[in-house]
Write a structure and sequence with these properties.
The chain is an alpha+beta fold and 178 residues long. 16% of the residues lie in helices and 48% in strands.
Length: 178
């Protein structure tokens, strides 16, 4: 007859080994599942940042549907970002973008830049925009289309200062009045 103390110790040891094997099997089983989509290390739904000028007035507002931080990537991905700039309410709507934690510019891709209300002023479309960290300068080295009223301009590159309301188009500027 086995003493109760030895039997309890043996049962406890067997249960511990079985639990450990189950833990290891479950951990490896989930990792081999190729149907699981990769996930970001961090995400925030509907983030919002507001920047103020030196006098404490709102200077810009950045919103997005989602912010994602992925392992091994510099900066954070933005999904459907919207940026409001300046006192005259310029807005940039983009398909996606990238935001950095340092002084590098905000990057926006597949962008429409317009003055609110949207129907009353110029509208600019471009594949990419960089917005300085303080919002004082907007630039693109990509193809640009500017529509304003019956005017239609195309160029390669732009520089925009929202505070002074100054827009420069570069390289191969062409205009049509319809």
């Amino acid at each position: 007859m086995i003493p109760i103390r030895v039997w309890a110790s043996t049962t406890l040891a067997a249960a511990t080994v079985a639990s450990a094997l189950l833990y290891v099997y479950a951990g490896h089983h989930g990792k081999n599942d190729t149907t699981a989509a990769p996930q970001p290390d961090l995400y925030i739904e509907r983030p919002r940042w507001q920047r103020f000028d030196r006098q404490g007035h709102p200077a810009s507002l950045l919103r997005a549907q989602r912010l994602e931080q992925w392992s091994g990537e510099d900066g954070a991905r933005l999904v459907a970002p919207q940026l409001q700039l300046g006192t005259r309410q310029w807005q940039a709507d983009a398909a996606d973008g990238r935001l950095y934690g340092d002084d590098r510019p905000l990057e926006l891709r597949q962008v429409v830049l317009y003055r609110q209300p949207r129907a009353s002023g110029p509208q600019i479309e471009t594949g990419e925009l960089q917005v300085s960290s303080d919002g004082s300068l907007v630039e693109s080295g990509d193809a640009v289309v500017l529509r304003s009223g019956r005017w239609h301009f195309s160029a390669h590159g732009l520089r925009f200062d929202p505070q002074r309301q100054r827009l420069e188009l570069f390289n191969g500027v062409r205009g049509i009045h319809e």
